[in-house]
Amino acid sequence: MPNTLHPQLIEWPARGQKPVKLQVSNSALAGLHRGHPWLYAERIKTQSHAGCPGDLAVVFDSKRRFVAVGLYDPCSPIRMRALRIGKPGPIDRAFFAERIAQALERRLPLLHTDTDGYRMIHGESDGLPGLVIDRYATTAVVKLYTHAWLPHLGDCLDCLLEQQPLERIVLRLSRGLQQHPEELHGLADGQIIYGVPLTAPLTCRENGLIFEVDPIHGQKTGFFLDQRDNRAQVEQLAKGKRVLNAFSYSGGFSLAAARGGAREVTSLDQSGPALETARRNFALNAAVPAIAAARHLTIEDDAFKAMAELVKQGRHYELVIIDPPAFAVRRSQIKEALSAYGRLAHLGVSLLAPGGDIVLASCSSPVTPEDFRHTMCAAAARAGRPLMHINETGHALDHPLDFTESRYLKCLFAQA
Questions:
Q1: What is the pLDDT of residues 328-355, one digit of tens each?
Q2: Full-prediction pTM beyond 0.90?
Q3: I need a surface site. Which of 28, 32, 105, 248 has the fewest CB within 10 A?
Q4: Where in the sequence numbering do the catalytic residues fall?
Q5: Residue 343: is it exposed, middle or buried by C-beta count within 10 angstroms (0-12/13-18/19+)?
Q6: Phi, psi at 258, each rounded to 5°
Q7: Domains in the chain and their CATH numbers?
């Protein structure tokens, strides 16, 4: 695949010709039979040989019957990510083309919403575990969560380009991959692996709003696409209100509130560059009368500290939005995460004008929706502002929930 930064063709690593044959525990077999695509290393009882990242791995039961085939990664605790379960079949270019086509078909309704920033491939839920592809106008950002995709990425991206012509493709690597640079074969996070370099800020559209995106250095793949529907809901709540958007990043919720008619919007984030992007996003949308009329303020500070200071100052808002980063990525962090969410809910309702609306979000996968809701409600009640008229929302259409662990996003809309 040509790369204008490196004129030579990228030489994707080759996969082994001999599949790794695995025998696994009964509990792992049960999980695979239920359709769960992850196989952890400690569940493997025996294997035919060591294997390299991207080799195919085949699981058999005790009677030598086929159970699953997937991608093998000796560098990851998730040793195999299953691609076919129950019925054998080839893992080849045609297979990838079919999975990509099915994923793109699920997103067709978005094409009628003045939106060109969305997730095209959502990993496990689209049958391509460990692979995420986001689209920002004519740029795609590929994020990998396992080295196992590298030998197959050339075929996958060829199939993607046949179905979705693009100007460029940017590669983003999870932290886990970057801890094993010897397996990256010279590839780097933020590398443009297809097409022309970026010579100007990249923008995309979401329900008609324009957002600046940094696909090379930005968080996730450059923007938080998963909150699209929740931003649209905030827009419907904002008319005439003073709004606080905590953990605002580049101002997605802020801009939605402004277009919804908010008279004043405060974006609070500890990142100065993120707030600069938020200000540019307001400028990009200045042709919208409601956005031009809204007063946009920014606070650069730790959200916990700044919200506590605003409480001391006696400040109040008719709409408070709190959308923090993940506080828990593993089960051992759940207790600490719930404590942090509770503190934020207490601060949020303390800043809320009587009868105001509050939006509380969590992207911590190990935290269940039930635990999140209970924690938020309990914290608000302790503050003397119990939550009422609670509405729970989750993922947008392009972040399907076909896989248990994919349900990471929780969002509560309530009054207090």
A1: 989 999 999 999 999 999 999 999 999 9
A2: yes
A3: 105
A4: 363
A5: middle
A6: -65, -45
A7: 20-85 (2.30.130.10), 93-199 (3.30.750.80), 224-415 (3.40.50.150)
